[in-house]
């Protein structure tokens, strides 16, 4: 069921918000034992909210998300609903406020049904670093859904909710969307307020929607986007009518493909599906041209130097004083800090804090952190130059389809390499979307990533919508739903 | 640039980060941090002469506003998540430092 269908049912009084909500909770109960996609199901809050919407039908009738159930990644604060970022160190944390995105969704008539599993503090590429255990891919339960917004992508892929929120620091919306066969949009840095998002890499983090169609992602982005006095990095640019941009006309769109970047290390099925998707777009009138992004191949090391530096600073706040867990009976203040952090954080988080602390430390700052920031500038310039010639840049979202749980987790470097195509959009702040564009012979979804100009999410969504008109990937359902 | 870290180096970084690591983690991180930094060394080959660093991609700020007093969290709400607090006094509690 799409956002539009749910909204129409509510508007025509076909189904009440409570009936829609109960239906979503039933579907969550049906799929979650196998998927582990939810850390918390907020039954009472959701039903109370749905009842309030039904009681005041006239007020909510025309709201853009009237009665629509939404799942929220567990690193986004929800008032009085447990928010953990999938970490033991935030065990029992009940936020005293709603994130701006949560408040905006509710103002638009949405019903928050629960908090989705993710990699701990959004650090990982497989959802396996979660203190709640991994999420399972709805298309193949022994495989990873991707990460870090693995629970949100799995929930939408399994049709538990029509949309979910994710956050994206290095690909965490787009990569799980790709591996789960749904649409995931990372908006331009600053397009969506991050107030209430648990910080990972502050110059990189962005919240965005995961949905089954471009149209639903467009409705969600229209609700989420806009300046917020509580987030000084949010942008004052006016918010266009994204849904109105979906007119199927892509005849003047020029799409650049960085051949040299995608020629190596890409799975053969992924490469074939990407090429076929570009053919579909070309047949609708888009022009496909070769471009060069000479520094994009350095994006992964630059990303891991910059993001871990920022994370080591952001995660200094978890000290057992103001919220979260604290070690029992510490000998003194310093051991309270070190033991609380040592036992509260998982391995990947500790590894990144260590790496970030090292690259910021005296004697190494210039060689690593400053150097990475300079190469970040070169990557930005590559994209600026490309966008003089093209409107979008296309490449696979992930070089591989969903990999097996356990396959990469023992070797952090192998896991980091999965992020090669997604991290550039975070380093540059550019908007990027992953859309389902095919299946492997073993029926694992494949995603194509499109990157656009700053604040031009409308063009991204227009192209995804046009592609959906000519193909049927977005309507395919995971086998677990037909059992 | 180092390709492997000694235990002392790992301990020094852990102390800077206020992290207690067990023996297994000390050994694991000594190896893995070396591996990751060896991989990251490829950025050293890039000529960045005269290239300014990018720390932020914010183009325009939206949040300038008059400096006016506004409501904030009540004290008891702010203390509600604390592992230990003196609610009456309005204080977070930590082990004594003196």
Short description:
Chain A is of the alpha/beta class and 483 residues long.
Structure explained in plain terms:
The complex is a heterodimer of chains A (483) and B (98). With 483 residues, chain A is of the alpha/beta class. Chain A has a domain at 3-250 and 432-482: Amidase signature (AS) enzymes, CATH 3.90.1300.10. Chain A is built from 17 helices and 11 strands. Chain B has a domain at 7-45: Histone, subunit A. Chain B has a two-stranded antiparallel ribbon. Classes of the chains: A alpha/beta (483), B mainly alpha (98).
Specify the structural class of chain A. Answer: alpha/beta
Give helix and strand order of chain B, one letter per element, not per position: HHHEE
The helix tally of chain A amounts to 17
Provide the CATH topology of one domain in chain B.
Histone, subunit A
Output the strand order for the largest sheet of chain A. Answer: 1-3-2-4-6-5-10-11-9-7-8
Beta-strand segment tally of chain B: 2
The most extensive interface between chains reads: A-B, 77 and 53 residues
- CATH domain class of one domain in chain B: Mainly Alpha
Strand order of the largest sheet of chain B: 1-2
**What gross morphology of chain B would you assign?**
flat
Helical content of chain A stands at 25-40%
Which structural class do the helices and strands of chain B define?
mainly alpha
Strand content of chain A: 5-15%
Strand content of chain B: under 5%
- Radius of gyration of chain B from CA coordinates: 23 Å
CATH architecture of one domain in chain A: Alpha-Beta Complex
Distance between the termini of chain B: 42 Å
What is the tally of helical segments of chain B?
3
């Amino acid at each position: 069921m799409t956002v539009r269908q749910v909204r129409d049912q509510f508007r025509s009084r076909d189904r009440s918000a409570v009936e829609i909500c109960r239906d979503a909770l039933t579907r969550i109960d049906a799929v979650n034992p196998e998927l582990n996609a939810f850390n918390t199901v907020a039954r009472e809050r959701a039903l109370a909210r749905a009842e309030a919407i039904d009681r005041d039908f006239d007020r909510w009738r025309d709201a853009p998300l009237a009665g629509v159930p939404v799942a929220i990644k567990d690193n986004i604060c929800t008032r009085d609903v447990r928010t953990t970022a999938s970490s033991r160190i935030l065990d029992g944390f009940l936020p005293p406020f709603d994130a701006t995105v949560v408040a905006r969704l509710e103002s638009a008539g949405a019903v928050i049904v629960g908090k989705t599993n993710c990699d701990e503090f959004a650090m990982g590429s497989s959802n396996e670093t979660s203190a709640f255990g991994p999420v399972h891919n709805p298309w193949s339960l022994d495989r990873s859904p991707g990460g870090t917004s693995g629970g949100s992508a799995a929930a939408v892929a399994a049709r538990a909710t029509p949309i979910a929120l994710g956050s994206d620091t290095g690909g965490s919306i787009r990569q799980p969307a790709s591996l789960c066969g749904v649409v995931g949009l990372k908006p331009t840095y600053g397009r969506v307020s991050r107030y209430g998002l648990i910080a990972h890499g502050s110059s990189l983090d962005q919240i965005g929607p995961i949905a089954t169609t471009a149209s639903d992602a467009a409705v969600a982005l229209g609700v989420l986007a806009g300046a917020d006095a509580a987030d000084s990095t949010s942008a004052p640019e006016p918010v266009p009518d994204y849904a109105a941009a979906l007119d199927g006309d892509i005849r003047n769109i020029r799409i650049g493909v960085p051949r040299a970047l995608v020629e190596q290390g890409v799975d053969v099925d992924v490469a074939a599906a990407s090429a076929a998707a570009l053919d579909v777009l070309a047949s609708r009138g888009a022009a496909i041209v070769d471009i060069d992004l000479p520094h994009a191949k350095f994006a992964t090391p630059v990303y891991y130097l910059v993001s871990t530096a920022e994370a080591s600073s952001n995660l200094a706040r978890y000290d057992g004083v103001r919220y979260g867990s604290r070690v029992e009976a510490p000998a003194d203040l310093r051991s309270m800090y070190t033991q609380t952090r040592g036992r509260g954080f998982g391995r990947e988080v500790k590894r990144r804090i260590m790496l970030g602390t090292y690259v910021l430390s005296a004697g190494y700052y210039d060689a690593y952190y400053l150097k990475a920031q300079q190469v970040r500038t070169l990557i930005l310039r590559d994209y600026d130059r490309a966008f003089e010639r093209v409107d979008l840049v296309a490449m696979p979202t992930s070089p591989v389809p969903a990999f097996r749980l356990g396959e990469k987790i023992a070797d952090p470097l192998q896991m980091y390499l999965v992020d090669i195509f997604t991290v550039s959009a975070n380093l540059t702040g550019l908007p990027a979307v992953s859309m389902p564009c095919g299946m492997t012979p073993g029926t694992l979804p494949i995603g194509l990533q499109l990157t656009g100009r700053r604040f031009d999410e409308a063009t991204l969504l227009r192209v995804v919508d046009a592609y959906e008109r000519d193909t049927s990937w977005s309507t395919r359902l995971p086998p677990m739903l037909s059992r | 640039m180092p390709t492997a870290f000694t235990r002392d180096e790992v301990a020094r970084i852990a102390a800077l980060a206020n992290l207690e690591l067990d023996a297994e983690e000390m050994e694991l991180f000594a190896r893995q941090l070396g591996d990751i930094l060896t991989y990251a060394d490829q950025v050293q080959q890039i000529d960045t002469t005269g290239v300014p660093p990018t720390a932020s991609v914010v183009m325009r700020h939206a949040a300038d506003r008059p400096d006016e007093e506004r409501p904030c969290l009540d004290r008891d709400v702010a203390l509600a998540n604390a592992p230990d607090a003196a609610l009456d006094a309005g204080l977070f509690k930590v082990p004594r430092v003196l």
